Structure formats: C-alpha cells, structure tokens
C-alpha cells in the first residue's frame, strides 16, 4: 500500500497514508501491533472460555462433595448379620432303596455357606480422579491459547499465501486501498455511484449467491459444475456475469486485472497491476459514459 500511495502522490492524486485514528483501530501492519478490532474480537471469546472452565470446575467440585457425603454416610451405617440356616432331610437305612432316596434328597439340598449375600442400599460412588480434571484443564488451556494467538495465526496465514500467490497480495492491497479511499472521500464515492448509474447498472451490491460462493468452497464448486460464473471488479468488488459489456479485462499477458466501467474510467484506463493501458473491444467508449 505504501508503493501505491507513493505512485498516487507523484500523480497528485488523493492518498490515504498516514491512516487516521479510526482507521488504525481497524487496519494494522502485518508485522506491527494488533489493532483494536483484533483485540476486541478475541476478548469476548477468551471470557466465554474462562466462564465454561469455571462451570466445569463447579461440576467437579459438586462431584467431590457428593463423594465425601456418601462416604461419610456409609461409614455410619450398621450392618446386621443374618443368621444362616438350612433345612435338611435325613434318610435312614442301608438298603438299596434308602441309598437311592438319600442321593435324591442330597441333590436337592440347599447349599450351605458361611458367607451372607448382602445387597448395598446406597449408590456405588467412584473415587475422584485428578487425571480427568487435569485432562479437562489441558483442553481449556489449548482453546484459550488458540483464541489468544488467533490474530497472529491469521497473519502467518497471509504471509504464507503471499509467498505462494504474490499477485493475490497486490490485488488485495489495491482493493483495500480503494475501499479506504472511498470511505474517506464521500465525494469520490458519489461520483462512482453516478457513473455507475449512468452506465445502466441498477446496483453495485453483491448478490447472496456470490456471497455464499465466496464464503463456502463447496457452494463455489457446485456453481462451477452447473456453469455459473461471476466476475468481480478488482477495485470496488462489483459482481457481474461473463461477457458483461460493463467489465474490462487487462489484455497484458499474465495480468488478472478486471475492472467495472466506473473504475475503468476513474483509473484513466491504466491497469493497477501491470501499470499498462487496458485494451478493450469497443474503441468508441464515451468518456462521459
């Protein structure tokens, strides 16, 4: 953006640097301190995670209190021993028939045992495990760290994208520069709107389909499969359909510059990417239009 500002300054055009105080709260340098918008954005999320962790600690504390209460109640219980008894039948005699009856009676006799089977009248409570508390604490600590370093992760992501796609970096800087310039100079914005209305465009707003396609890659892939494609102005972001006569593409080899008619006239037919003259099919385009 500094290079764009210097070039516009040499051409005696409006510039945006240095940024004003309200703009510094929104925009910041890649290697500089965090802006107020980034700081305010992560503060509510950090507070939300801390509140969730506090509620989790309360659950662990209640579980521990229940454990202590049940153990104290069980220690004060009195176990009443039940005297075991067994009813048996004895068969006297030494004959074969007596032996058969004796075997039959013993097979159905009750099993004698000195141990009493007693069922507990209280709920079985598991012991308090500190490992579970430590595991939950580590999860919340990871979430808190990810939220705290989120702005820095986004900046690293931009650095990586700029290293692999340098042209996208230039396009993003040009769009941001013109966006700040239009917000700062209402007269310029009104001039753009007047030129756009005179050119016959009803609206410069992006449609809902284009917003969904820009936000979700799956929607964009589905639209491309059915043959739906949109064009976007490099400077103002206005959307349009392919073969739209109101859009002008730079014919320089390898350049991806694409401009709507209002931005095309405002830029004096000079591409902001390659700084060359933008060629167009209609050589009789009216400057008043």
UniProtKB/TrEMBL annotation:
It is found in: Membrane. GO terms for cellular component: membrane. The gene is 20206036. Residues 2-177 form the Dendritic cell-specific transmembrane protein-like domain. Pfam families: DC_STAMP (PF07782), zf-RING_DCST1_C (PF26037). This is Uncharacterized protein. Residues 232-276 form the E3 ubiquitin-protein ligase DCST1-like C-terminal domain. Keywords: Membrane, Transmembrane, Transmembrane helix. The keyword Nucleotide-binding does not apply.
């Amino acid at each position: 953006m500094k290079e764009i500002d210097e070039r516009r300054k040499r051409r005696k055009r409006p510039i945006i640097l240095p940024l004003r105080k309200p703009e510094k709260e929104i925009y910041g340098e890649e290697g500089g301190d965090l802006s107020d918008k980034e700081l305010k954005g992560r503060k509510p999320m950090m507070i939300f995670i801390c509140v969730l962790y506090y509620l989790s600690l309360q659950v662990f504390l209640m579980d521990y209190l229940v454990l202590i209460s049940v153990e104290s109640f069980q220690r004060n219980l009195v176990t009443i021993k039940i005297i075991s008894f067994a009813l048996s039948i004895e068969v006297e005699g030494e004959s074969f028939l007596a032996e058969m009856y004796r075997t039959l009676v013993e097979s159905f006799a009750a099993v004698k045992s000195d141990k009493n089977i007693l069922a507990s009248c209280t709920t079985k409570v598991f012991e308090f495990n500190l490992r579970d508390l430590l595991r939950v604490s580590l999860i919340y600590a990871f979430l808190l760290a990810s939220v705290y370093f989120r702005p820095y992760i986004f900046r690293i992501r931009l650095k990586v994208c700029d290293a692999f796609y340098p042209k996208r970096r230039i396009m993003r800087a040009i769009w941001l520069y013109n966006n700040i310039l239009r917000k700062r100079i209402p007269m310029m914005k009104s001039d753009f709107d007047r030129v756009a209305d005179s050119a016959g465009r009803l609206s410069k707003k992006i449609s809902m389909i284009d917003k969904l396609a820009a936000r979700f890659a799956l929607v964009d892939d589905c639209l491309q499969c059915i043959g739906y494609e949109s064009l976007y102005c490099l400077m103002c972001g206005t959307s349009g359909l392919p073969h739209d006569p109101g859009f002008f593409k730079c014919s320089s080899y390898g350049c991806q510059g694409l401009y709507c008619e209002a931005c095309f006239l405002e830029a004096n037919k000079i591409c902001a990417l390659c700084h060359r003259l933008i060629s167009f099919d209609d050589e009789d385009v009216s400057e008043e239009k």
